[in-house]
Predict the 3D structure of the following.
Amino acid sequence: MLSTEAEACRSLTDQQRTLMQKARIFARKEIAPHAQELDWTAKFANTIYKKMARQGLLGITVPAKWGGAESDTLSYALVMEELSNGYASIADLCGLVELCATLLNELGTEAQKQRYLVPLLKAQTTCSFALTEPDAGSDLAALAATAEKNSRGFILNGSKHFIHNGPICDFALVLARSPAAKADDRAMSIFIVESSYPGFSRGVKENKMGQRASQLSSLYFKDCQLPPDAVLGIDGDGFKHMMVVLERGRIGIAALSLGLMRSALENVLKDTADKDRANSAKADSQTVQWAIANMATDMYAAQAMIAQAARLKDQGIPANTQASMAKLFASEAAVKHTGIAVQITGIQGYTQGNVLERLYRDAKVTQIYEGTSEVQRIIIARSLQRGGLTP
Amino acid sequence: MEFQLTKIQKMTRRAMREFVRQEVVPLAQALDETSEFPSANYQQAFGLGIMDMALPESMGGLGEDFLGFIIALDEFAYGNAALAHSISVTEAALHLLYQYGTQKQQQRFIARLHAGEILAALPTELSDVDKRSVGSLRAEFDGNGYRLNGSLLQVAHAPIADIAIVFAATANTTPSAFIVDRQMTGFKATRHDALMGMRSFPMGRLQLNDVHVTHDDLLGAEGNGGAIYGELLRRSETAIGAIAVGISQAALEEAVRHCKARVQFGKPLAKMQATQNKIADMAAGVEAARLLVYQAAFYLGQRSQLTTQTAIAKIIASDQAVAATQEAVQIHGGYGYMKDYTVERLYRDAVFTQIYPTTNATQRSNIAQATYRTIR
Ligand SMILES: Cc1cc2nc3c(=O)[nH]c(=O)nc-3n(C[C@H](O)[C@H](O)[C@H](O)COP(=O)(O)OP(=O)(O)OC[C@H]3O[C@@H](n4cnc5c(N)ncnc54)[C@H](O)[C@@H]3O)c2cc1C
């Protein structure tokens, strides 16, 4: 079993280590045995979701009084890595809850926290985080969903797509142009939209290449009536709010990519250690050894980058660039190495039922969601060009 | 090297391109979802004379060379790589029967294969050839023939084939090639679990339990299996190379269409430099791979003495296909991860070309060995 343990334990706090170990055991016992079937059936992992809440693995950075683990970004990254080592879709579910819960915790009123945050962290409800639109993917500033004030609150119109938990969410945090937009056309707000509001509807569930247990669909808002207290945070500051949580989100996806890569490495090691079979030659093969060495090296680099970005953030130092670098590096490495792992394993690794087969499909989206690799490069380059992060 | 396609080859390309876009492309996605054998397209390909293109006219073929076939295969793979693979397996079986079969065997099988009445299975377990026992199949003399025992794990068409060409060695002879029939007692074929991609291609396991074959079932001379196998391998490598090229071409075209149409930040993705670099690399890669594959096919068709040309073409083309499909999905962003988009299938299909008929790692080691022999 490879882990961050040997390298990192000395500098982990008790709380960080405890959470990591809890997540690891949970991944091994409760997630990994079901990953294959979840991939096949593409169903929502409801049981695991509930158990995850009971184990205290939701809302890692949220204060205990709201039901969170009251820990830090590094703990969150460690948990994401471990969960993803079991199955990436489950980690992504944890990450989704973390994003929504962070927004609710940091921006919500007492009433909003009671109504949404508390039941969410008990897994009594499901949430969505809805930014992307058909015409606004990487270019989020182009989004068209708009809320207008009316006598009963707000009227929301527009549509979102590729929304995780879309087919099942009880409420969604929706980024839309706000009435405050008059002054500044980037002004947006985050609205809490319950699925029971009139004018809310969902699209059909998407059929995806990988991370198939993650439920995705469009969300449609047609003259959707929102109450006056549906705004989360400062009306007009929604875009800024979202960008701040995406920083943690990117660290989370970097960790998810890492967990997935670790799983590929573990499987290659297991496969080649199987000396009974005719392939004892395989363990001695330099092709295999090189693949293992390169994968492990990238893994350790990713671990260090993720820990660094997380620690900066935990110290209150802006870590946007570092988070982007970690996400870029870890996701590219995950795709590359899961591909190589399949290739050296041959037809078995290409057959459904083999973990590597799933990992190669699961990995690809890490280069796409929460900011594509290209978007990360733009963020990193701009930051350097503006004199940040002196080389 | 002189390199120019003949008039007929150019016509083949044009005709196939049109056919594939009309008849193959529209069915590909559903076939991927259901994993069904692409029977309709397969029969159509027979009707067009694709599989026996390289057979002489006396055998009912078109008398074209292997390159003509490879060009057609490239076009078919553009539409459906799994279908193209089935076509190439049948082509290889026909070729082996024509090249090594007795007149009687040719009469028995070629016409029926030709008519699409029967399907032939071919093994891929090449790694053990060097050890003089192909796969884990063994043959034993039994007076008036042989008894075949053992199983082959990776057999193209096994689950639905009527006959199979297999290779087996006895304890003290080099391997021989045999034609076994599904009707023979002890013949058992099972379908593999679903694969990541190439899902409508039937792969399976072939198990032979004391299958009795006579001298009539020997393909080629006794003990000559190694050479026949080598020929099959070179043909498969070239075909897989062509399939990889077809996949890359499809990935390139999908990526180009998408990046021209998709606008972000006020301009089409096509106008962004990062996209242009990717498209340029994909276009360059597909061109390079295609040339290598065509060159290998050309030499193979001329029956030149080949060493590493087919294997080199195959590793370059397959690595290129994986790189191209990864970029094509990336250019599609979230859309590329959805099964509604062709690139999602291409991404899964491409990996197959890196591991079939053997993994690129094995091929690299073979290429190195051959290179050591030539450069002293
Ligand atoms: C499984 C999955 C889950 C998701 N979950 C959610 C969710 O819960 N909530 C949500 O809001 N969204 C979600 N998304 C959407 C995701 O965030 C977007 O797909 C992503 O931001 C990319 O946007 P796009 O798909 O529109 O691609 P596009 O923005 O169209 O990008 C296409 C390609 O062009 C490149 N590109 C774009 N602009 C530039 C540029 N200026 N320079 C160079 N290259 C550029 C991109 O990097 C990409 O390679 C999810 C997507 C997937 C696949």
User: Anything to note?
Assistant: Chain B has three domains: 7-119, 121-223, 226-374. The longest helix of chain B spans residues 225-261. The domain at 121-223 of chain B is CATH 2.40.110.10 (Butyryl-CoA Dehydrogenase, subunit A; domain 2). Residues A 129-132, 137-138, 162-164, 211, 214, 216, 365, 368-369, 372, 374-375; B 262, 264-265, 269, 272, 274-275, 330-331, 333-335, 337 surround flavin-adenine dinucleotide (CB under 6 Å).
